[in-house]
Write a structure and sequence with these properties.
Largest sheet: 2 strands, antiparallel
Structural class: mainly beta
Strand order of the largest sheet: 1-2
Distance between the termini: 52 Å
Mean pLDDT: 79
Helix content: under 10%
Strand content: 15-25%
Oligomer: single chain
Number of helices: 0
Length: about 70
């Protein structure tokens, strides 16, 4: 794999034809957002948003929240 930017290779993408037919219903979407917010201490931000309605993980992948009432 040819890499243009030096760093860790942390993400791999598969072609749809490389995924077993029985696993296609668990494929999720990903949105990568890069943003510059000059008013913050760390102005360069990158976030990875994963489609949570299709995640099939046997572990607890929820986010704990608190009731404000």
């Amino acid at each position: 794999m040819k890499v243009r930017v030096e760093g860790a290779i942390t993400m791999f993408f598969n072609n749809k034809n490389g995924i077993p037919q029985e696993r296609l219903k668990y494929v999720v979407y990903v949105c990568i957002v890069c943003d510059y917010r000059e008013d913050k201490d760390e102005p360069n931000r990158t976030s990875l948003i994963v489609g949570g309605d299709r995640i099939n993980d046997p572990n607890n992948c929820g986010t704990p929240t608190e009731d404000l009432l």
